[in-house]
Each structure stands twice: as structure tokens, then as C-alpha cells.
Design a protein that fits this description.
The complex is a heterodimer of chains A (about 300) and B (about 250).
Chain A: E1 5-14, E2 17-27, E3 32-37, H1 43-50, E4 58-63, E5 66-67, H2 72-75, E6 78-82, H3 93-101, H4 109-118, H5 132-145, E7 150-154, H6 162-178, E8 182-187, H7 190-193, E9 199-204, E10 207-213, H8 214-218, E11 222-227, H9 228-235, E12 240-246, E13 249-254, H10 260-269, E14 272-275, H11 278-285
Parallel strand pairs in A: 3-8, 3-9, 6-7, 7-8
Antiparallel strand pairs in A: 1-2, 1-4, 4-5, 9-10, 11-13, 11-14, 12-13
Helix pairs in contact in A: 4-5
Chain B: H1 2-40, H2 43-47, H3 57-86, H4 91-123, E1 129-130, E2 133-134, H5 138-189, H6 196-201, H7 203-208, H8 218-239
Antiparallel strand pairs in B: 1-2
The chains are: A alpha/beta (about 300), B mainly alpha (about 250).
Chain lengths: ~300, ~250
């Protein structure tokens, strides 16, 4: 079973603070989504609604055309992995995994053990004694091995070191290819994860700023690199979001799509044209007043 | 539907065994204390009361059981509801599973107590006294104690649910509610208390005459069931759509 998610005009308020403000999204089945936002943008709130931890104050969430909240059939199709506080979990890793496995219809115990080995997790250690990185890895194992049609990772990777994160990304892609399912990865580590995403959703202050396939997003702009004066001349009048300078070389990120004529002109001037990065776009779009994206 | 009913039975089964596991320490220690007191201390001196004398294991373990039920009840929402919802189980299935588990736990506790009391009778027969009076049938003792343990669990569950949902204000509202529940049960079932309510039912007398066919025995049962129903309804209403903390 796979799932379509329809989020319609969803709002969540914490006292006066609008954690989510009329969010509408339609997420197709079997795709990998990047949910990108700054701290406090509402990423975790949105994901916890999809996990039925709470009901929206306004609006509705439907999965496969049915209301999600407290729906037994749908709830067991969702796995939400986040940085859980595990310091009171006295159970050993093995028992901890087994307890969860019992309630996950698609859980693959064999695959879980494979991942445990790959992440070097000690099966006989109590969970609370694991280091932060290992707890993150344990969460990752649960998220992957549950094989839920809707799998959400909320910055689970922030506790892992870089090689472990890399291993996790690789596993995620491979297992998604074997068992396609809707995955939502929330992050602010955009630059190292952007290749995972098929579609990007950028949340800012409880609102959806952007929801588009990543390749479409990347065509929204370009990076122009070359001799400083030539670059300056080329990008004059364009919407510049990021500038880097190294010696006589300059690289400017613009968010105007380039025309064929402009591309030809760049080629003649010896300028290098690359795609805009999701990270830069994210920084640009969520820039606060008084803060600088371009330095 | 069939799958869902299987799920709450699974939840009930897992919860019962987990909580039973926690209780082995408590029961073990109480039993050890009971045996050593019986071997080494003269109870009449200790209690300074000829009448109270020794009233058997069931009487001895009654309060530890009740305290255990209360505490485990308080933990239920923050520990189990939270875990189950995070694992993809509905609040409804958790609730149903928990009710069954609490009943099962109460009954198993009383079976353990009755078995130990039975052994006690074989080893050294004592005049067996519970608050149901002397000579009350073992079945009735089992039934009434099970019901009372269950109610202590509900009292704890109420407090835990109230606090989880409304934090500080939850305690202000739900603790008096839980205390009222326990107080009412005491009023209904305690043979020691000479309360107006108790005199009205005159349960003590009825039981010592052992006339179960008299309808009055059903009054405390009836009222107990009403109290239990109100408590269960309150708990369900409190947690029905509760936000689960991350």
C-alpha cells in the first residue's frame, strides 16, 4: 500500500504563535520529499500532524482520501522518526527494536539486523547508554526497517557523524529503490542532502514558500563564474542572491532563468554557467530583514 | 475491524506482562517481609492489639497492591499512550487495551494473593479476616478485591491523563476526582467504617449471614460499576484527541 497525502489549509497555533499558517500541500506516493526550513519554521509540527501526534487546529489532512487522525488503518502505515529523548529507555537495543517491530506491519527484521551491523550498533547495550550518534543510527534503523508507506525523518541525521550520515543517505536511496514509498526528509543540512530529494518543500514561518520538483527549482536560476569584471557585466540587472570572490574570479548566483541568447553570450565570454544550489535558494528565500544572504 | 480488535488484545497482552514484570519485585519483597514477620515477630505484640491479631496475607498485601496500581495507573498515559501513538497505534486501541490489561492485572494480582493465602492456610491456619468480614466466601473476596484494585488503577490513570492533557490544572481537577472515586469505593466496601452509607447497605451484616440471594449485595456492586463507568468515560474523553508530546 502506498499513499497520497493531501494537506488542506492546515493551521496550528501555540498560544499566539502560528506554527503552521494555512498550509496546503499535495504529496504524491513513492516520492522522496525534502522538507526544508530554518529552525522554528514549522517542519516538526507539520510532520507530527502527519504522524497523528496531534490534530490541526484548522484544516484537514487526508491520506488516500480518508481523514488521517486516529485512523487505525492509516496510522500504522506511518513511521515518524525524530530525535527522541532516549535517556530513560533502559531496554536493550534488541528488545527495543523487537517491541516496535510487533506493531509495524511491514517491518523487516532481517533488514533491521543488517542495518544494525552496518551502523555498528551493539544489540546488548541498553538504549540509554548509546552515544548520541548511535541513538540517531538506531532511529534511522527503525525508520528504514519499518518500510512504512509514509516514512518521515525529522533531522534524525544531525547526531550522526559525516561518514554515518553518508551511509544512511546511501541506504535510504537503495531501500527506496527496492521498496518505493513516500519519504519526507526534513533538514536544514540542504547542501549535503539535495541530491536525495525529488521534490523540495520550503517552509518559512509556518507557510509554504515553495513546493516544486528539485530539477525545476534548480532551473530557476544559475551560477555564473569567471573573471570578475566579465561576471559583473553579465549579471548586471539580474536578481543576484549570492556572490563569492576568490582573487580575480567571481561567482554570482542569480535567480533569473537564463535565455538561450544569454547562455550563448556567456559561452563567448568564457563564463561558466552552473545550476543554482538548493542551499543558496533556501538561504535567499528565507532571509530575514537585516540579514544578508549575499556578502 | 477484525484486525483492530486483535490489536487491542495484543496491546492488552503486552501491557499486562510488562506491568506484571514490574510487580514481581513488589510482590517478592512483600512476601519476604510477610514470611519473616510471621517467623520472627509476635504480631499481637507488634500491633499491640489482640483483636487485629493476624489477618492473613491478603490483608497484608492489600495496601502494597493498591499503591502499585495507583502508581502504574499514573504512568500509563505518559509512558504507554505516548509510546503506542508514536508506534502508530490509535488512542482508542490503546485505551481498550489498557482497560483489559488493568482488569487482567487486578485479577492476576488477586489470584497470586489467594494462592499464597491458601498455602498460608495449609501451613498455619489463621482466622481469616478481610474487610468483607469473617467467613466471607473466597470467591467474593476475590471479586471485590479485584474490583478495588482496578479502581485504584483507574484513579492513577485519571491523574496521569489529567496531568498529561492539562498539566498543572489537570492535577488540581483530577486528583480530587481520583480521591473521590477511592473514597466512594471505601465507603461502599469497607466493613470497618460505620458510615451512614455503609449502615444503609449494611453489607457487613449481609455478608456474615452469607445471603447472596439478597438483592442488597448488588447495590455496592451496582454503584461501583457506575463509578467505574464514569471514570472510564472521563479518561477516554480526556485522551481521545490528546496531543502526544514529542
Amino acid at each position: 500500500m502506498t499513499a497520497d497525502i493531501v494537506i488542506d489549509q492546515v493551521s496550528v497555533k501555540y498560544k499566539k504563535f502560528h506554527a503552521l499558517d494555512h498550509v496546503s500541500l499535495k504529496l504524491d506516493r513513492e516520492k522522496i520529499y525534502g522538507l526544508i526550513g530554518r529552525n522554528g519554521a514549522g517542519k516538526t509540527t507539520l510532520l507530527s500532524l502527519l504522524a497523528s501526534f496531534a490534530e490541526p487546529d484548522e484544516g484537514s489532512i487526508q491520506v488516500n482520501g480518508k481523514p488521517l487522525f486516529e485512523n487505525a488503518e492509516l496510522m500504522q502505515q506511518v513511521t515518524f522518526v525524530y530525535e527522541k529523548d532516549l535517556k530513560e529507555e533502559s531496554e536493550k537495543v534488541k528488545a527495543y527494536l523487537e517491541a516496535i517491530a510487533e506493531y509495524k506491519p511491514n517491518y523487516d527484521a532481517e533488514y533491521a539486523m543488517e542495518l544494525v551491523e552496518r551502523f555498528n550498533l551493539p544489540l546488548n547495550k541498553p538504549v540509554y547508554k548509546l552515544s548520541k550518534g548511535m541513538q540517531s543510527a538506531l532511529n534511522a534503523v527503525i525508520g528504514l526497517a519499518s518500510r512504512s508507506p509514509i516514512t518521515m525523518f525529522d533531522e534524525t541525521y544531525s547526531g550522526m557523524d559525516a561518514p554515518t550520515r553518508e551511509l544512511f543517505y546511501q541506504e535510504l536511496l537503495e531501500d527506496h529503490a527496492r521498496y518505493p514509498r513516500t519519504m519526507i526528509l526534513s533538514t536544514h543540512l540542504v547542501s549535503e542532502m539535495d541530491y536525495l530529494f525529488e521534490e523540495a518543500v520550503i517552509l518559512h514561518k509556518g507557510k509554504v514558500l515553495l513546493h516544486e520538483p528539485v530539477d525545476v527549482v534548480l532551473e530557476k536560476g544559475a551560477s555564473v563564474t569567471g573573471a570578475a569584471d566579465l561576471v559583473d557585466e553579465f549579471v548586471a540587472g539580474m536578481n543576484q542572491i549570492h556572490t563569492q570572490k576568490l582573487g580575480g574570479t567571481k561567482s554570482v548566483m542569480v535567480i533569473d532563468p537564463l535565455t538561450d541568447e544569454q547562455l550563448a553570450r556567456a559561452g563567448q565570454s568564457g563564463l561558466e554557467i552552473g545550476p543554482v544550489s538548493l542551499q543558496d535558494l533556501f538561504i535567499h528565500l528565507t532571509k530575514e530583514e537585516g540579514q544578508h544572504g549575499a556578502k | 475491524m477484525e484486525q483492530s480488535s486483535r490489536k487491542d488484545l495484543k496491546i492488552a497482552f503486552n501491557m499486562t506482562f510488562m506491568q506484571l514484570g514490574w510487580s514481581t519485585w513488589m510482590i517478592g519483597i512483600v512476601l519476604l517481609l510477610f514470611i519473616s514477620l510471621q517467623v520472627f515477630v509476635d504480631f499481637k505484640i507488634l500491633l499491640n492489639d489482640e483483636e487485629a491479631a493476624f489477618q492473613g496475607f491478603i490483608h497484608f498485601i492489600e495496601n502494597p497492591y493498591k499503591i502499585f496500581m495507583l502508581v502504574v495507573g499514573i504512568l500509563s498515559v505518559p509512558k504507554f499512550l505516548s509510546w503506542f501513538v508514536k508506534t502508530g497505534i490509535t488512542r482508542k486501541d490503546y485505551f481498550k487495551g489498557n482497560v483489559i490489561a488493568a482488569l487482567a492485572l487486578s485479577a492476576i494480582f488477586m489470584m497470586i494473593a489467594v494462592i499464597i493465602a491458601g498455602i498460608e492456610q495449609l501451613v498455619s491456619p489463621v482466622s481469616f479476616v478481610t474487610y468483607l468480614g469473617e467467613g466471607a466466601s473466597w470467591f467474593l473476596i476475590f471479586l471485590v478485591y479485584t474490583l478495588n484494585l482496578f479502581v485504584y488503577y483507574l484513579a492513577g490513570w485519571l491523574i496521569g491523563a489529567g496531568y498529561y492533557r492539562y498539566s498543572g490544572w489537570g492535577l488540581v481537577l483530577y486528583i480530587p476526582g481520583a480521591l473521590t472515586l477511592i473514597f466512594m469505593m471505601d465507603l461502599l466496601w469497607s466493613g470497618e467504617l460505620e458510615t451512614p452509607l455503609h449502615r444503609l447497605f449494611s453489607l457487613h451484616q449481609l455478608l456474615s449471614l452469607s445471603v447472596p440471594e439478597n438483592l442488597s449485595i448488588f447495590i455496592p456492586f451496582g454503584v461501583s460499576f457506575v463509578l467505574i463507568a464514569i471514570s472510564l468515560w472521563t479518561i477516554r474523553a480526556t485522551i481521545k484527541r490528546v496531543r502526544v508530546k514529542l
